[in-house]
Structure formats: structure tokens, C-alpha cells
Amino acid sequence: MLDNCNYNQPQRRHYHRRNRSFDTMQSNEAMNHNCYNQNCYNQNSNSASVLGGITEKGSSFMATPVDLNNNWNPSGMERPFCRRKRSENCVFQQPMQPAQEQQNQDMYLFYPTDTMEETYSEQYGAYDYIEPTYEVEEAFQYYPEYRMEETNSYQPEMVNVNYEVKETCTPYGIDQMPVGMGYVPCQQWRSIYEPEHALYVGTIFQELDLAFMEGGCLVK
Amino acid sequence: MNQNKDQLMMVIYESGLAAYDAVLFLDTHPCSQEAMAYYQNMIQINQNAVREYESLYGPLSSDRAGYGNKWAWVNTSWPWEMEGC
Predict the structure, then answer these.
(1) Cβ(B19)–Cβ(A203) under 8 Å?
(2) What is the pLDDT of residues A45-59, one digit of tens each?
(3) B35–chain A Cβ distance below 8 A for any pair
(4) Which of B3, B17, B41 to mutate to probe the A interface, most A CBs <10 Å?
(5) CB contact set of A129 (below 8 Å; sequence gap of 6+)
(6) pLDDT tens digit string along B35-78?
(7) Does B34 reach chain A within 8 Å, measured CB to CB?
(8) Do B17 and A195 touch (CB under 8 A)?
(9) Ordered alpha helix ranges (H), A1-41
(10) Predicted complex ipTM
(11) From residue A144, how far is each of A25, A193, B24 by CA, in Å?
(12) Which residues 42-71 of B have a C-beta within 8 angstroms of A?
């Protein structure tokens, strides 16, 4: 499962023509991209050098499955264009829930390869549907109407969720909110309650006299 | 200053909380002169109130119940007696 790939590379986004939407390559998928670039593709293939670039070579595309959660290899098979063994870098397998299987069965990304097609066919059988994956900016040239849809097309509700969180300050969907950095301002000696009132509210500091309500972030 | 038992106890509670909250502040602001002065003031109030209370109504903690010839801790109400609450 572990490899020596760089997991911190910027994510790549692809336009998925069949679904008429954009993919955001994340997590394991992004890891595989990097892995693919660094350890497998360049070393083991003499084919097209641009990953996911626009090519119209038809038969030079390799179909690889992607699931809704951006986990790699939902069908459980090894990454076809990496010809290393599973015990080596870059090849790993993600278990998939049965419920996702049907949902993901026809969602594929296609990467350009020349020499891998034969390998893929030998290992996993022939495929009859080939469609290229575009880099985002290149895809905009052909589909400018999608330029405004720079969201994760598999989870379009994420945008609305974030807006709602901002407005209502509710904690729901916290795992879908963007990552960030947290800051805690240094407390100042100010606004000290009288001891009588401090005993009643539990603190001498007015700025710490907050209402702890479900949902948080409400100031008294 | 004469205060009844409940009033004295309330002063002890209030000054104790205030002093302890100042302690927490001083833990992260050890150079705060305002907090230090506040803490010393509240500690003084607390100690005076405790001293007065104990002189009138008996010890508030067992570590101060051993003075004299008798264990004074048993002279005051127990927690399950309403008066001791």
C-alpha cells in the first residue's frame, strides 16, 4: 500500500466528456497520478508523454476505473498501465463496497498510452468504449460553457453545503469543508466580572462567558 | 466586619473562583501585573474570609481541623446534612 511517491503534488483536474463534467483528482487518485508519473509510466513505457493530454489517437487510450469517492481501482484490479508487480511501488488495490460497484461501473478515466493497450487487453480483456480525458484548460477550449463549473462534479452539493455553513454556522458537513489553519487569539486581561457575577457564570472573564450551544460558535 | 455564615461562605466561594481563574490566566501570562494584583487581592479576601468563618463556625477543611486538643472536623455539619451543603 505504501510507496515512495510524492503525495503532495497539486491535484490534477480532468474534463470527463462522457459525463460532461469535471473530475477532481484527489487522494488516492492523485497519489496514483504522481506514482504513475514518477515510478511507472516514464520508466516502463515509451508511449505518449503527457498524462491526460488531448490526444486523438483512439486506440492509444487506456481505460482505468475511478469511483465516486475518488478511490483508485474500484473494481479491485491493478492499475493496468503500471507494469510493476504489486509488491513494488505504485501498484495497490483499494477494496470497494458492493453498493458502489454498480454506481461506478461505467465511470472511467482514460489515459493516453501506446504500449499499454496490449498489456491491458491481455490482462483484463478487450474494451470497446474509448474516450479521452482532457486537461481542464484544454477542455475549456472545446467546452467553454463549463468554465463556471469548477466544482467536484461528483459531489456538486459541496458548494451549497459550504455556503450554508457560513450562513448558519452549523457544524454539519465539517468533513466536506476545506482544510485550513486554526488560530486562537491570545487572551487579554480585560472586562473582568465582579466576583459575585463571576461565580454565577463560572468565569471572571467576560470574553470567556460564552453560550455553549449545539452547533458552536455562538457568542453570548 | 461581621457577616453571617452564608454571606461569609459566599465570599469564600466568589473570591476562591476569582483567584483560581486568575491563576489560569497567570499560567499563560506570568508577567501580567494586572492579573497578579487581582490574584493577590482575591487571595487576601479569601484568606480573610476563611479565617473569619473558621473562627466562628469551625474548620472548612480537615487540614485546619487539628489545632487544639480536639479534632474539630466533626463539630461542623457533614455534607449530607443540609446545613453543610
Answers:
(1) no
(2) 333 323 333 333 333
(3) yes
(4) B17
(5) A63, A108
(6) 999 999 999 999 999 999 988 888 888 888 877 777 888 877 78
(7) yes
(8) yes
(9) 27-35
(10) 0.82
(11) 20, 60, 59
(12) 42
